[in-house]
Every structure is written in C-alpha cells, then in structure tokens.
Amino acid sequence: MSFLDLFQGIGTMFAQTPSIVIARIVLIFLGFLLVYLGAKETLEPLIMVPMGLGMSAVNAGVLFMENNQIGNLIINPLLSETDELMKYMQIDFLQPLYNLTFSNGLIACLVFMGIGILCDIGYVLEHPFISMTIALFAEAGTILTYPIARLMGLDPGASAAVSIIGGADGPMVLFASLKLAPELFVPISIVAYLYLSLTYGGYPYLIKLLIPKKLRGQAIKVEKKKSSISSKEKLVFAVITNAVLCLLFPVAAPLFLSFFVGIVIRETKIAAYVRLIGDGFLYFATFFLGLMLGVLCDASTLLDAAVLKLLVLGMLALLLSGIGGIIGGYVVYLFRKKNFNPTIGIAGVSCVPSTAKVAQKAVSKENPAAIILDYALGANICGVITTAILTGIYITLLG
Amino acid sequence: MICLKVFAIGAVISYAIALLMKLTLVCIRFFSKRGEGRAQ
Q: Is the pLDDT of residue A135 over 70?
C-alpha cells in the first residue's frame, strides 16, 4: 500500500482538479480562521465555532469511495434518489440529521421557537407604529436586492431567496431558499450565516458613517410614563396575530407558528417548556445548524459560478437594509420633532438581539446615560415580524 | 415590479399588525376596567 493510499485525505488531492484542491486547502484554513474569530467573539461563536470545525473537517476528510469516486463519510447534500438516500443515511453520520431536520426546514423552525422565547413583545406593543416604521425601512435590502439579482441573471426564486438575506434572519433565509431555490439553498444559507455574523462587526462603522456624533448620543425624553404591558395583553396579541398571519400566508405558517409558539410559551410562563425551548431546542438547533453549515462547505459544492454572485448580493442586501434602517431612524427622528435617536434605526434589521445591542453600544459610547434599548428591541422584534411577512409574500408570489 | 408589490403588501400588513397591537391593548384594558367596575 502506497503512502497516498494510506493517507487518503492527501491522496485524493492528487486525483482532483487543481481548482478543487486549492479550494479545499483554502477552506481548511478558512475553517481555522472561523474557529479563531468565533472563539475570540469577533464573529458569533455559537455558529462560527462548530461551522469552522465542520468546514475544515469536510475538506480534509476526503477519501476514495466505491467505484473510485471521491467523497466523505460526513454528509452528501446532493442525493435525491430514495435508494441512495437510504444507503447514505447508514453511512454518513450527519446524513440523517441533514435530511430529517435541515432540508425540510425543521431546524430553522426550532431556532425560530428559540427566538420567540427570547423576544419580549412588550417592547413592540409599547411603540408599535414607530417600531414597525423602522422595521419596514430596514427591509430596504430585502426589496431592492431583488431587481439587482434579476439583472445579474438569477432566476426569480433565487433572487427572492438571496434578497431575504437583507432581513438578517438566518432561519428565514434557510426556509425561503428551501422553498424558492432548493438547488441554491446550501450556498445561500452559508452566505447568509457568514454575513449575519459580520453585522455585529460591520454595522457600528455604518452608524458612525451615517449618524453624527451629537445625534448618536441623544437621549430620548419620556413625556409620560406608559403603563407596562401585561403578560395577558402580550398573549392575546400573539395568539391573534399568529392566526391572522397563518390565514394570510399559509406557505409561511411553519415560521409564524414557531415564532409565536415561543412567545406564547414565554408569556404563559410554563417553566418546563421555557427551559425545553430556550435551553434545549435553541442550543441544539444552533449547534447542529453551525456544524451542518460547516460540513456543507465542501469545495466541490462551493465552486459554483453562482456563489460569487450570492456573495456580492448577500453583502449588498445587508448593507442596504442597514442604510434603510438608519433612514427609518431619521424619519422617526423628524416625525417626533427630534425627540428620538436615529441610531435605533439599525435595530430594525432583525438580527435579534445583536443589532439592538449594536445600537445601544453605539449610543452608550457617546452618552453612557442614554438608554435606547427598549425602542431598539421593539424595532428588532418588529424586524422579525416584517421579514416573516415579506418572506411569506415572496413565497406566495413566486413559490 | 414584484419587489414593489411585495413591499406594498408587506407595508399594509405590517401597519395592520401595528394597528392590531393597539386594538388588542385598548380592548383588553377596556374589558379589564369593566370587569373591575362590576366586581366593585
């Protein structure tokens, strides 16, 4: 047995095309970098640490399979034949999880339930119109990226799926790409999650660029103390809105149900369910989502001409949404006769709760006494609702 | 034109949801006050 037959990870490099070999090596090192940046908390560690590890493992652990084909023993996302699928479910260790939780959107719904548990909709109910206005402006990327993607040659389904990256909601992108562009859902999901973790690092610069220092530190004067929103009020709103949205957009009903079930469980305070969803489902789904996204970054899957377009469009969508959100912040600032901080606009981009934290951090840096977190969380949660609505409309019109 | 359609429908439904939020609060507070009044 030769050296290359013994160490097949290296041996396969001599049997593959140079472009694939280079991509494999780059992706192995990119995986190291993601783990490093995740561990340093420069990028979102919950996703990036398992994703980076998976990415380096899948590109290193390549071997010769039967009939001299090249593959791995982790996952094969391109299977469609039932017999083959059943065979690989018994060979690749992540194949069952991929087919039974990832490719049917279940994992996205589990993350969404967890997001529901994290969201206190009391913040939205206190200022519904302000929050909704900001959230709508922060959908600029979701709307404006679509025609640009069409001009770049993507079909309507893929254009809509990549536009939804502008909503900055990972599970939503996953769900939408499964429905609208199943052939591109792996690269679209990877691009979305890569960029979403960059928003935490990139948006503070956008805020600095578009909002002057004086306005960033502005505190909001409270005219009269509003009565706090009770759990009963939140519960009634969640139950009614869930039914209304499912009635309007049955295609996105799994997302609405998952989000509102999280909210309802939170408000009914059923401790065992809160722990189950908040500690169990959310972390289970996030961990496997990260790992799965990593192992899907196989060099041969990513060496597709469409991926470059997706990289550009994903970045553009998030940039446009960030700018749109800040414009929304300015609109509310003018509408409320300057008693508002436009920095809150960035929180309309619904990356819960990252963008709300980014907004509060930017404000606190200029004026530690200014607390805008309640407004920011309101806009943040409305962002989730508007993104779900726009996703539902896109799927209804194009799906 | 699809994106304009998506935005228009999205905006209408989003504001309808915001209105629903206000209505929910008003109705619940109204019925709570009436219930309290009756109890007294």
A: yes
